[in-house]
Amino acid sequence: MLDRLFTLFSVADWSALALFLAGWIGYSHFADRAARSERGLRGATARLRDDWGREMVMRENRIADAALTGNLMTSVSFYANTTIYIIAGLIAVAGTLDQLIRFTEELPFGRQQTKALLEAKLFLMIAIFIFAYFKFTWALRQYNFLSILIGSAPARDVATGLLDAHARRFADLSTLSGDEFNRGIRAYYFGFAALAWFVSPGVFIGFTLLILGVLYRRDFRSPTLDVLAR
Question: Domain locations in the chain?
Answer without folding.
Answer: 12-228
